[in-house]
From TrEMBL:
The keyword Transferase applies. Keywords: Cytoplasm, Methyltransferase, S-adenosyl-L-methionine, Transferase, tRNA processing. The lineage of its organism: Archaea, Methanobacteriati, Methanobacteriota, Stenosarchaea group, Halobacteria. Residues 79-343 form the SAM-dependent methyltransferase TRM5/TYW2-type domain. CDD domains: AdoMet_MTases. It comes from the Archaea. PANTHER family: TRNA (GUANINE(37)-N1)-METHYLTRANSFERASE, TRNA METHYLTRANSFERASE. GO terms for biological process: tRNA methylation. This is Class I SAM-dependent methyltransferase family protein. GO terms for molecular function: methyltransferase activity.
Length: 345
């Protein structure tokens, strides 16, 4: 059976295998094969494989020693893995229970199975989960060499965006000042700090900020990560004395004109935060602006909003990349605009 594989010279095989394993991309139910000096590593989701890898379709034998959920069910169920937790999106309770039992009885290294019980809701962007197997909703997720502790009941985290996060953070240079306006548990801020940047992350979700601090320590970048709890429009703008307090009492630095790079991953309402983003921007600054729009004009609304906010502050605007992240819903796309703001000399 042909499956998507990463093709790599045999001499680079082990390093590539480790990178794919850290991103939870290796198809554990298929054998890695070698032919004519090339190693073929089967992957579970080709859309999440980072640019630069050579993807090919290739016959990969099933591993005879591993029992998969599909072996037990007679069909291939749809699910996501996040650390040692499997996530389902099943409307039929009986089908969900059957899949959960098969996952636990299979050779997958997981013990917890959750089924989505609501849509993402509220300003903290969390959802309800039904616990089908296991004992809780906390896990440690590994992604491109980094570890993120999180509790799915308290914070938002999508493993599907791993490749996109990697795409952005690979652009960060040593010595940069990076501000993540909706930081969550740190999947942008922590890799940026690991590349030598000074990273600041704000989030209205207090539990997310607690995990961001824990994850900065877990990944050895505590000295280069600052975590701020509160609505970024309130906790980093408007102070007249250069100091301000977040709603949990901690005093933070004035970041006006500070940032070289700003991540705005709140696609349904990022436009409401553009005035704050522009106030954070330095003389030259790159925005990574996420949006969800109709497929007929996925980039136009965001680009017009950015140009309007930036031009009022005297910036010149250059759109460097118009990038489709994924399909979000019928006829709707999740997109990212990489935009450079520059003050004329």
């Amino acid at each position: 059976m042909e499956v998507p594989c990463v093709r790599v010279p045999r001499a680079e095989g082990e390093a590539t295998r480790r990178e794919l394993a850290e991103a939870d991309l290796i198809a554990d139910d298929r054998e890695i094969t070698v032919e004519n000096g090339w190693l073929y590593i089967p992957v579970v989701d080709p859309d999440r494989v980072a640019p630069g890898y050579d993807l090919v379709d290739r016959d990969a034998p099933e591993r005879e020693t591993q029992t998969t959920p599909a072996d037990l069910l007679g069909f291939d169920p749809s699910y996501e893995r996040l650390g040692d937790v499997v996530l389902l999106d099943e409307d039929d309770p009986e089908r969900a229970d059957r899949i959960a039992r098969a996952i636990v009885e299979s050779d997958l290294p997981v013990e917890t199975v959750l089924n989505k019980a609501s849509k993402v809701k509220g300003e903290t962007r969390v959802r309800d989960w039904e616990l089908l197997a296991g004992e809780g909703t906390e896990t440690v997720h590994r992604e491109y060499g980094f570890e993120y502790a999180l509790d799915l009941a308290d914070v938002y985290f999508s493993p599907r965006l791993a490749t996109e996060r990697h795409r952005v953070t690979e652009q960060v240079g040593e010595g940069e000042r990076v501000f993540d306006m909706f930081a969550g548990v740190g999947p942008f801020a922590i890799p940026a700090a690991a590349r030598g940047a000074e990273a600041v992350g704000a989030d209205v979700n207090e539990r997310a900020i607690e995990y961001l601090r824990e994850n900065a320590e877990r990944n050895g970048v505590t000295d280069r990560v600052t975590a701020i709890h509160g609505d970024v429009r309130e906790v980093v703008t408007g102070a007249s004395d250069g100091r301000r307090s977040s709603d949990d009492g901690e005093v933070t630095t004035d970041y006006e004109g500070w940032a070289d790079r700003i991540v705005m991953n709140l696609p349904h309402s990022a436009d409401e935060f553009l005035a704050t983003a522009v106030s954070l921007a330095g003389e030259e600054c790159v925005f990574h602006y996420y949006d969800i729009q109709h497929e007929d004009d996925p980039f136009g609304p965001g680009e017009r909003a950015i140009r309007g906010a930036a031009s009022e502050a005297g910036y010149e605007v250059e759109v460097e990349t118009r990038h489709v992240v994924r399909s979000y819903a019928p006829h709707e796309l999740n997109v990212c605009l990489d935009v450079r703001l520059t003050r004329p000399a």
